């Protein structure tokens, strides 16, 4: 059953979303229970989810926030050059991986007002591929022919999740970078993104130079994190500065672009 936002006055669903609401149960039935379908209204990023089918897959529900990828798309205006994104890697807060795609919902003027997202759990397919590989694998009979595959060989034999050097979901050898994390709350979304940005710079926030802190703020701004209410407070805590200082760093970061 599709979880749909109530139509109270403060959360009126725009007419443009009506056709997409009708699509959710159809897509859920077509794709099956291992596909989550989510409809976002970006007019309120703190509770952008207005409808969900198979939401138990990621644990999200109506009233949930936008994802980090949605913020990045809006901040960098990726929707100006394309109508959709397909087959990127997403991860839920519980650690599950999904093959995800996003379609941009537009109004009559062509402005993006929402996004229709599909998150597919391909776990059983990866497990089936592993099983087939294990029972069809051949080995040389002579010691001289018992050679381990090279990295290049593995790269040619692996498809789907490519070129990251980390373990992939469901045991495949490689996987792409996670493009999206399916957060359950606004605090979780902002806190996790701030923490990952600081960690990526390799220096604890308390020991960063002002230049490194400006770089951290620049990266967070590029990711669209400051579109979310409360993000400045999370950044200030992680960087061991005041909120006014974060605003000053943000002004400097934007002036240096």
Describe the structure.
The chain is an alpha+beta fold and 257 residues long. It has eight helices and seven strands, in the order βαββαβββααβαααα. A seven-stranded mixed sheet has the order 1-3-2-6-5-4-7, sandwiched between helices. A hairpin with a 7-residue loop joins strand 2 and strand 3. Helix 5 runs parallel beside helix 7, helix 6 (210-222) crosses helix 8 and helix 7 packs across helix 8 (243-255).
Number of helices: 8
> Strand share of the residues?
15-25%
N- and C-termini, Cα separation: 47 Å
The percentage helix is 25-40%
Q: Element order, helices and strands?
A: EHEEHEEEHHEHHHH
**Spatial shape:** globular
Mean pLDDT: 80
Q: In this structure, how is the largest beta sheet organized? A: 7 strands, mixed
Q: What is the strand arrangement across the widest sheet?
A: 1-3-2-6-5-4-7
Low-confidence stretches: 151-168
Which oligomeric form is depicted? single chain
Total beta strand runs:
7
Which structural class matches the secondary elements? alpha+beta
The Rg value, from CA coordinates, equals 21 Å
Notable traits:
single chain, 257 residues, alpha+beta, seven-stranded mixed β-sheet, globular
Summarize the structure.
By secondary structure, this protein is α+β, with helices and mostly antiparallel strands.
SSE blueprint:
Layout: E1 3-4, H1 18-31, E2 35-41, E3 49-53, H2 68-76, E4 84-92, E5 97-106, E6 112-120, H3 123-136, H4 151-157, E7 178-182, H5 186-200, H6 210-222, H7 231-239, H8 243-255
Parallel strand pairs: 4-7
Antiparallel strand pairs: 1-3, 2-3, 2-6, 4-5, 5-6
């Amino acid at each position: 059953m599709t979880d749909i936002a109530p139509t109270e006055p403060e959360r009126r669903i725009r007419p443009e979303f009506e056709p997409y609401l009708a699509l959710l149960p159809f897509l859920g039935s077509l794709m099956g229970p291992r596909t989550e379908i989510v409809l976002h209204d970006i007019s309120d990023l703190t509770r952008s989810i207005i409808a969900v089918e198979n939401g138990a897959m990621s644990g999200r529900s109506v009233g949930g926030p936008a994802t980090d990828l949605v913020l990045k798309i809006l901040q960098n205006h990726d929707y100006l050059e394309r109508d959709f994104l397909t087959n990127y890697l997403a991860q839920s807060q519980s650690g599950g991986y999904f093959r995800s795609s996003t379609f941009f919902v537009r109004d009559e003027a062509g402005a993006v007002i929402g996004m229709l997202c599909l998150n597919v759990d391909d776990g059983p397919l990866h497990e089936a591929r592993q099983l087939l590989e294990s029972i069809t694998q051949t080995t040389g009979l002579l010691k001289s022919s018992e050679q381990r595959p090279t990295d290049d060989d593995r790269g040619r034999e692996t498809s789907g999740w490519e070129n990251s050097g980390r373990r992939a979901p469901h045991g495949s050898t490689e996987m792409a970078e996670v493009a999206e994390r399916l957060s359950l709350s606004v605090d979780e979304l902002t806190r996790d993104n701030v923490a990952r940005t600081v960690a990526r710079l390799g220096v604890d926030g308390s020991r960063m130079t002002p230049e490194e802190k400006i770089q951290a703020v620049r990266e967070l701004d590029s990711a669209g994190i400051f579109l979310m209410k409360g993000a400045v407070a999370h950044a200030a805590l992680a960087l061991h500065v005041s909120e006014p200082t974060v605003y000053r760093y943000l002004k400097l970061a934007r002036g240096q672009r």
